[in-house]
Amino acid sequence: xxxxxxxxxxxxxxxxxxxxxxxxxxxQVLAHADRAKAEAFAAELGGSAAVGxxxxxxxxxxxxxxxxxxxxxxxxxxxxxxxxxxxxxDITNPVDFSTFDGLAVPEGSSAAEELQKSTLARxxxxxxxxxAATLQAGKVSGTQLDVLIxxxxxxxxxxxxxxxxxxxLKPIVVGPLRRARQLEQAGFLNxxxxxxxxxxxxxxxxxxxxxxxx
Length: 214
Ligand SMILES: NC(=O)c1ccc[n+]([C@@H]2O[C@H](COP(=O)([O-])OP(=O)(O)OC[C@H]3O[C@@H](n4cnc5c(N)ncnc54)[C@H](OP(=O)(O)O)[C@@H]3O)[C@@H](O)[C@H]2O)c1
What we know:
Blueprint (H helix, E strand, L loop, with lengths): L1 E6 L3 H12 L4 E5 L3 H10 L5 E4 L6 E6 L3 H11 L7 E4 L20 H7 L4 E4 L6 H6 L1 E2 L2 E2 L1 E6 L2 H13 L3 E6 L4 H16 L19
Parallel strand pairs: 1-2, 1-4, 2-3, 4-5, 5-6, 9-10
Antiparallel strand pairs: 6-9, 7-8
The protein binds NADP nicotinamide-adenine-dinucleotide phosphate.
NADP nicotinamide-adenine-dinucleotide phosphate binds next to helix 1 and helix 3.
């Protein structure tokens, strides 16, 4: 058994796996299709992660598909009842890349809510507002990263908050799963700003931050 199963070996998988291992959690990494990719990924992270490929048994109580929205939907379908009761962290920003002018989710919904409709897992939205590069260090310009979290299941939200906290990040619970609509728009805004050449100070290594009153 692992604490956390990360699906994918891309940018966000690397960022989140780095933080999870820094938090002392045990990690299983499932590559899309190529076991050698998972092995190389685990070696890069220090060698302690268990490895496999999509379709292998999921061992983590917390599952983090570090993949795009369409792939995440296929993962909920593929694993079906095997996801029952697990915490499923939706990190996706379902940007409509054909227009780069909005999100590719139904009006009045979010990727996280759409995923929840198709899975017996407890979906929690988190990590979609933190860029991969910033997760590696957990800080930007010496400032702790915020992890904005939304979910309907109190225990699942707590489990994700505890993971973020243990990883040196600042969890901020913003409300029920429908708040994912706002988180996905916030993630999109962050992307737009980073893609905007007129705002060179906000690049893919910058972060959204809520500053509390002292
Ligand atoms: N990058 C960021 O800073 C950032 C920030 C916040 C949220 N996000 C979100 O995080 C997610 C991942 O982004 P990323 O930048 O990490 O992407 P990425 O580097 O392109 O990695 C995507 C991963 O998905 C795997 N994959 C592709 N198709 C798949 C399928 N059908 N089933 C299972 N796995 C599949 C890929 O495996 P192969 O390469 O082996 O096919 C790869 O490991 C996206 O939803 C994105 O919106 C990204």
